[in-house]
Amino acid sequence: MNAMQLPVLNPPLKGFLRWAYTLSITSAHEETIPWYYSNFIQLSCTKKFLEDGRQCFLDFFRGKPNELNFNNPFLLTCSVNYTILENLALGAWPKFFADQIRNGYYCVVFLDESKLSPAATYQKGPFPHHLFLYGFDWDERAFHASMFDRTGVYRNLQIPFGEFQDAVQSMRQLLRENLAADHHTYFYKYEPHSPYPFDKTAAIDQLRDYINGETHLNRVNYNFDNEDAFGIKVYDYLQMYFDAVENNDSRLGSRNDVRHLHVLWEHKKMMIERIGFLVDQGIIPYDEELVDGYKDITKRAMKLRDQYIRHEIREDKEVFERLRLRFDEFRDEEPVLLQKLIKLLEG
After folding, report:
1. Which parts of the chain register pLDDT below 70?
2. Most CB contacts within 10 A, which of 85, 111, 120, 324?
3. Could you write out the DSSP letters of every residue in 180-244?
4. Origin, by domain of life (predicted)?
5. What is the pTM of this model?
6. Are the C-beta atoms of residues 32 and 74 closer than 8 Å to each other?
């Protein structure tokens, strides 16, 4: 077999690749949809990004470890590091990964993305990152891969074996010189799960945690360190973050302004899609106030993201006042709508 592609779909969430990669696999299977809508309710963000100059992260929260690490019931997961792969000759890497794809495994390879010509970081200095491989063409000497390209668009494309090997070799060198940490390479195989109906209990627990700005998820597996804010409290820290941006605060580390607003919009979009699913499945009755309320929040969140993108192209200082206004609105409106959703689910 000289060519093969495993099934993938355009993922519903792209704010972080841990979601884009794993959901592009599971979304191709209809049986995973109730699980998807039972989850992805909670948000978390970094609290101490000014005190120690660390990067501020806003993301969906599904417990620890994150989604790359054995956290999806439909994916059989294996992981290896460069120490284990050290004795694999560089010329053997394409065949090794092609063989895994032949065996039904999607490959998420940790490498230096600056060696890949479609990447925004191409030839701009080392950029350790994960690359998603879902197929290969031995005659074309290329892998089928998914990634954000140089224009910032997540898409499927081909990576020549030569570029792939250069990226692996560069990563090897970075690790030998202790210039990077090894974030491991992952292999995922889709395995049908036992029936997974929509989980009302899990959804209600997450909704309550979101409203209360807390989490009770996976406490048995890690010590709560109070480093992150959860749920409705993320708006306080988003406001702190954008105040620091507006004031050019020297304590602010690396920035991801648009990503924060994109993830915020994805969260609202996900919520209105979930409500639609629940109504379509007859799990809750149609409620005009709930549906219209979340549609409006989703529309405002998308507009806010787009306005900030325009601000980065052509400065508009008024965007920071709009951010403050919208964060205050969402902080007030969401708990009311989510309490209504909880009552509908309990009823």
Report:
1. 67, 218-223
2. 111
3. S----EEEEEE-PPSP----HHHHHHHHHHHHHT---TTGGGS---S-EEEGGGHHHHHHHHHHH
4. Bacteria
5. 0.93
6. yes
